[in-house]
Amino acid sequence: MTTDPATALPDLSELEAGAAVVRLPMTVKFRGVTEREALLLRGPEGWGEFSPFLEYGDAEASRWLASGIEAAWQGFPEPLRARVPVNATVPAVPAGQVRDVLAAFGPVQAVKVKVAERGQALADDIARVAAVRDALPEADLRVDANAGWTVPEAVEALTRLGEFSLEYAEQPVPGINGLAEVRALLEARGTPVKIAADEAVRKAEDPLRVARARAADLIVVKAAPLGGVRRALRIVQEAGLPAVVSSALDTSVGLAAGVALAAALPSLPHACGLGTGALLAHDVVRPPLVPERGSLPADSLGERATPDPELLERFAAPEDRRGWWLERLRRCHAVLAATRV
Ligand SMILES: O=C(O)CCC(=O)c1ccccc1C(=O)O
Ligand SMILES: [Mg+2]
């Protein structure tokens, strides 16, 4: 087994031979979608997922392919822990729906609440966070704005939301400098809130700039957008900041890569955002990788990421979508062949 993903890129024909394209219904709208499409790859070491969001360009999407190839052609590094604690993820739903959303995750120690949704007001965020705090008075509560606020909006919102006692705020504003500014302004006001960088790490040409700019207290890392488990491990090590591993709303196949990453980190001080299997109404693996009493198992991930053929058939994407994904696979394979990540 090679340890460097740069050493061996399988031929396109090998990828195509083991490719399944699925479309899975979700229980709630998330990132504006109610169905999740994914191309799953079967290789000599198991299964991998290639599911960049539909709007992503090929350069960005090709890192997700590197991650899927790593899982299926190399497998995962040895886990350092048996289970990975996870948060429930509450999309930008009305406060009245919070209890139903939380119920799908079962008991959890941590909850992430989406805020700053376009078309909503700060009052909606406050009501949603209050409903979560009310349902789970002891939980670690984090919010994720997906860069939806301006710096002044973030300072106001986090001052108000800070009253519910936040573990941290994920990507309140765009960019690395914006994060550093929000972090310093809250600190200067005497209302510090820990800041987590997500998009600023995921999309940055230089993922390590976040740490150097003192823009965040921790980083959110995702296996697929960072080009795989091993590359993400190196980025965390070089950043020298605590890391939270999150999903990209993956199927159980992609979630297994996230669990492998979380299980291989030398230190894991926070629950991870890998409970999103509970937001899928159906999955491709039986049983799916969903939280059990607030955590996911980190052993036997190869088996846990093996789709059930009947589910692959039942949730096979329509023919035109399969064609679209295979074409994207071909283009991203060409990007990897030309550059490698
Ligand atoms: O971290 C979680 O709880 C769930 C994962 C999540 O929020 C997410 C899922 C897909 C795309 C982006 C994000 C994000 O963290 O911004
Ligand atoms: Mg995020």
UniProtKB/TrEMBL annotation:
Recorded catalytic activity of this chain's protein: (1R,6R)-6-hydroxy-2-succinyl-cyclohexa-2,4-diene-1-carboxylate = 2-succinylbenzoate + H2O
Keywords from the UniProt entry: Lyase, Magnesium, Menaquinone biosynthesis, Metal-binding
Compositional bias (Basic and acidic residues): 301-310
Cofactor dependence: a divalent metal cation
Enzyme class: lyase
Pfam families: Enolase_like_N, MR_MLE_C
InterPro entries listed in its UniProt record: Enolase-like_C_sf (IPR036849), Enolase_C-like (IPR029065), Mandelate_racemase_C (IPR013342), OSB_synthase_MenC1 (IPR010196)
Residues that hold Mg(2+) according to the record: 144, 170, 198
Domain Mandelate racemase/muconate lactonizing enzyme C-terminal: 95-189
Active site: 114 (proton donor), 222 (proton acceptor)
Start and end residues of each stretch annotated as Disordered: 291-310
GO molecular function per UniProt: O-succinylbenzoate synthase activity
Enzyme Commission no: 4.2.1.113
Pathway the protein contributes to: Quinol/quinone metabolism; menaquinone biosynthesis; Quinol/quinone metabolism; 1,4-dihydroxy-2-naphthoate biosynthesis; 1,4-dihydroxy-2-naphthoate from chorismate: step 4/7
Functional description taken from the UniProt entry: Converts 2-succinyl-6-hydroxy-2,4-cyclohexadiene-1-carboxylate (SHCHC) to 2-succinylbenzoate (OSB).
Family the UniProt entry places it in: Belongs to the mandelate racemase/muconate lactonizing enzyme family. MenC type 1 subfamily.
Name of the protein described by the UniProt record: o-succinylbenzoate synthase
Native organism: Sinomonas cellulolyticus
